Amino acid sequence: MLLASVAALMTIACGGSSSSSTAAPTNGALYTLIGDTPSCDVLSFGVFYTEMDLHKAGAASTTLLTVWPTGSAPISPVIEMSTLRDSMTIANLTTVPPGTYDQIVLKAVVNGASTFDSTQSPPVSNFAPAVSTESVTINLQPELTVTSGKVSTVQLDLNLPQSLAVDSLGALTGTVNWVFTGRPLVASATTGFGEMDNLYGFVRSVTPVTNVAGFTSAFLLQTLSQTATSSSGGGPALTVNLTSQTQLVGVPQISQLPTGSYVEVDAYINQDGNLVANGVQVEDRESVSQQLLGYMGPVLDVTKDSNGNVTQFDMLARETQPNDAVDIPVDSTITVNVSSSTTFSPYQLSSDLTNLASGNLSFDDTTLAPGQEVVVHGVFTKPTSGPISVAANSVYSRLQSVQGTFSSLVGSPGSDDKTGAFHLSPCGGILGSHPVMVVTDAQTNFVNTSGLSTLSPTTALLVRGLTFLDVAGSTVNGTPVPAGTMVLLAKEVRQF
User: Fold this and answer.
1) Are 277 and 293 in a shared domain?
2) How far is CA 248 from CA 37, 265, 294, 299, in A?
3) How far apart are alpha carbons 464 and 494 in whole angstroms?
4) I need a labelling partner for 204 at 20 to 30 A (CA). Which of 239, 294, 385, 393 fits?
5) Tell me, what DSSP letter sits at residue 271?
6) Are residues 382 and 447 in the same domain?
C-alpha cells in the first residue's frame, strides 16, 4: 500500500529555496524518524521542526536538497520530545532523488516547554527557551543511500541534556544549543526498520478488508503532532496495516473501529516501508463540537477521599486529541474530576507486562499517583479565570520511560540474569514521593548491559515500561513488594 503511494509520489518534485527544483521520476521513499535522550525534570519539550535539507556527498557545501516542507510533504510538525525517551516516532514520509547523502541540515525551534517545580502548586513551571541558532548540521554516520523505487529510513536523536544550557549551579539558563545525531537504519527480516510503541492519534478511516498480500485490514491514523500556526493535527497521516497476528484491544474486530477514536499503536516499518501493527488499543471516540477530547501527559498531584479513592487530580496536558490549541493550549495544567462512573484501564499492548501485573498490581482510582503517564478522555470546561477542568469519562495508563540510577538488587537474579528486581533512584522529582522498584523478567531487553548483575550505580539508567503504585504491598514475579512502592514493570533497561 505504501509503495503504491510512493510510486505516485515519484513524479513530484522535491524543491526549496536552497535546492534544485527538479526531481527525477525515479525517486526513493524516505522516512524520517525522531527520538530523544531525556533530561531530568523536563516534563515537556515541544519542538517545531520547520525544515529538513539533505547534502549530497561530494557536492558543494552550499548545495542542499529540501526534503520537507515541499509541495508533496508540506507538513512541519511539532513533536513532543519528552514522550520519546528511548523510543521514536515518524516525523515525515516523502520522496527524494536517489544518491548518497552525508549530512542533514535541520531547522527547529521550541514551541513550548515545562519543568517539574516542587515550589509550585501544581508542581510545574512553563518556560520559553531561546534557541541560539535555528539551523543545525548533522553528520550522517554511515552515509544515507537512497535507491530508486526503494524505501530508506533515517533516524534523528535529540540529546536534550546537552542541548539545554545550564549555569554553574546546574540550573537551566533558558538557552538551547541543538545537539542532534543522525544515522540511516537498516531493515531486519523480523522487525524491519525498528519497533515504535509510541504511535498514537485518531482514526480517520477504516479499510476492513484489504487485498494486499500479508495484510487483513488497515486504517488511516492521524498522528497528533501539531503545527505551530494551526489548531489542526499537523503530523503525518499513516496507513496502519493489520495482520492475522495483530492484537486488537477495545473492539472485537476492525470493522467495528469507529472513526474519530483515539488509539495507541505498537508497530514497525517493514522492509517494504509498510507500517505493520503488532497491537492496537482502541480508547474513546472524541467530539470537538461537544468539547469531548483526549488529554495526554503526566499526573502532577492527586486528591483522595477518606477511603483512599482519587476524587481529583492535576495533570500536564502536553497534547490534546484532536488538537485544540485555542481552548486548551499546549502545556496546560488541567484539573481532572473523577466520579463513580470514571473507568480506569491499563495499557494492554504488551502481553508480558500484562502478565507480570496480573493478580497483583492494578491501575484504578486507588493507585493513581504523581509521575504516571496517562490519557484522560472527557468533557472540558474553560472558566473565565482559573484552571481548565475535565470531567473524566475514562483514564488510561501509558508506557513511559523513567530515568535514574541503580541503587541495589532486590534478592538474587534468576539463572538467566534477567529475572528479578532492583531499586531505582529516579533523577526527576515528580516520582520522588514513592520508592521505585523495577521488576524484570526473561523478556526484558537489556541494552549496553548483559543483565541485572552488571548494573552499575555510577551510570544513568533509562527504564521503559508500566508503572503501578502498590498501595497495600504484594508479591510480583516472586519478589515481595513493600506497601507504598511504585513498581515499574520493565520492557527495556538501558544503561548509559
Assistant:
1) no
2) 30, 10, 20, 27
3) 8
4) 393
5) T
6) no
| Distances in whole angstroms, Cα of residue 312 to Cα of each of 252, 342, 486 | 32, 11, 20
Estimate to the nearest angstrom the gap between the alpha carbon of 311 and the chain centroid. Answer: 28
Q: Does residue 318 belong to any structural domain of this protein?
A: yes
Q: What three-state secondary structure class fits 254?
A: helix
Residues 18 and 159 in one domain: yes
Give bridge partners of residue 45 from the DSSP assignment: 113
Determine the Cα–Cα distance for residues 85 and 37; give it in Å rounded to an integer. 6
Chain segment 114-137, per-residue pLDDT in tens: 999 999 999 999 988 899 998 999
477: Cβ contacts below 8 Å, ≥ 6 apart: 356, 419, 421, 439, 441
Q: What is the pLDDT of residues 54-87, one digit of tens each?
A: 999 999 988 999 998 887 777 667 888 888 877 8
Can you read off the three cell numbers belonging to residue 109?
A: 525551534
Cis before 161 (ω within 30): no
pLDDT for 10 equals 37
Lowest model confidence (mean pLDDT) among 199-208, 296-305, 327-336: 327-336
Could you tell me the CATH number of the domain that includes residue 236? 2.40.50.320
Task: Note whether 217 and 320 are same-domain residues.
Answer: no
Could you tell me the CA-to-CA distances from 255 to 282, 348, 383, 385, 487 in Å, in that order? 13, 20, 39, 43, 37
Phi, psi angle pair for 59, to nearest 5°:
-85, 165
Rounded to whole angstroms, how far apart are CA atoms 474 and 119?
A: 33
DSSP string, 36-77: EE--TTEEEEEEEEEEEEEEETTS-TT--EEEESSSS-----
d(CA 296, CA 190): 31
Nearest to 91 by CA among 102, 107, 112: 107
Q: Other CB atoms closer than 10 Å to residue 130's CB: what's the count?
A: 12
Write the CATH number for 366. Answer: 2.40.50
Taking the C-alpha atoms of residue 461 and residue 496, their distance in angstroms, rounded to an integer, is 6
- Grouping H, G, I as helix, E, B as strand and the rest as coil, residue 82 is helix
Domain count of the fold of the chain: 4
**461 domain-assigned:** yes
Q: Partners of 155 in the beta sheet? A: 33, 183
Asked whether the predicted pLDDT for residue 32 surpasses 70, the reply is: yes
Q: For the whole model, what pTM was predicted?
A: 0.90
Neighbours of 58 (CB within 10 A): 9
Domain housing 462: 400-495
Q: How far apart are CA 414 and CA 417, in angstroms?
A: 5
Of all residues in the chain, what percent carry a pLDDT higher than 90? 69
Provide the phi-psi class of 488: left if phi over 0, else alpha when psi is between -120 and 50, else beta.
beta
Q: Report the distance separating Cα 365 and Cα 368, nearest Å.
A: 6
Distant-in-sequence, close-in-space partners of 229: CB < 8 Å, separation ≥ 6? none
